[in-house]
Amino acid sequence: xxxxxxxxxxxxxxxxxxxxxxxxxxxxxxxxxxxxxxxxxxxxxxxxxxxxxxxxxxxxxxxxxxxxxxxxxxxxxxxxxxxxxxxxxxxxxxxxxxxxxxxxxxxxxxxxxxxxxxxxxxxxxxxxxxxxxxxxxxxxxxxxxxxxxxxxxxxxxxxxxxxxxxxxxxxxxxxxxxxxxxxxxxxxxxxxxxxxxxxxxxxxxxxxxxxxxxxxxxxxxxxxxxxxxxxxxxxxxxxxxxxxxxxxxxxxxxxxxxxxxxxxxxxxxxxxxxxxxxxxxxxxxxxxxxxxxxxxxxxxxxxxxxxxxxxxxxxxxxxxxxxxxxxxxxxxxxxxxx
Length: 338
Known about the structure:
75% of the residues lie in helices and 2% in strands. The protein has helices spanning 17-23, 35-47, 54-66, 73-92, 97-129, 133-158, 162-189, 194-204, 208-218, 220-234, 237-247, 260-273, 281-301, 305-311, 313-337, and strands at residues 25-28, 31-34. The chain has a two-stranded antiparallel ribbon. The longest helix has 33 residues, at 97-129.
């Protein structure tokens, strides 16, 4: 997963007084720091506590990005992908392989239909909106597969420009934030079962981190179903990337393989078939959930007002339309078949 770059420190002559105070250097016990760094640190520490939740962590990150700003944007951008991957592997220690196979069988038809349907719809709507082919394909792949991870993998295959990557990432991250807050509410209002909600999350929410956050808020069974189906869905990065190279006639490109998914599978198999490993499961799952909470805080802290404005209306329109169609269609099918 890749975050967008924002200016961590506004220029002094452009910043209001309270902002200048946040960025002013101070010294204590020989250490130089700013109030901006202190605020970030307090929010970060809170995300490590039991009182934090994925939606709250994302909200805190967004609040920080719109006010004080993220003083460690470069570090959090680099840490997010690794933290997400290790957290996914950690969740594997709480999964049962037999239940995962059953969940995978349930979700495979929905997965295949939604991926190809989303890519086709994205192509048609993108042409109508007059967006570039690369931006359309990046947003469509992010919606169809696994959000920022898919965009980060498909972008180099397309030889996409930095601004095209930023537009696609900004679009799916904003929609991820909306989904994280709205999906559990909709699920409870419609009285979705744990299996139904987990399957819906895995199909209709872009990023794995937001899928886990929404499903964890709904229940442990929903979390297990959502994680399994979403990671199986993420493996489609490989064939879609190969298809992208052929479609856009790109030669000599490198395909990014999501190897961390195999780490999740290994952890799940160990938890299922090696009794000595099972006592470690609860601790590993707890650490994984904390990792996802911190990941969402980092993502929110990267979505500054400058980043949100830079995307433009048409990419948001494409991303929103694709998201609404996928969400509504998958929900209808799940309600009538699962």
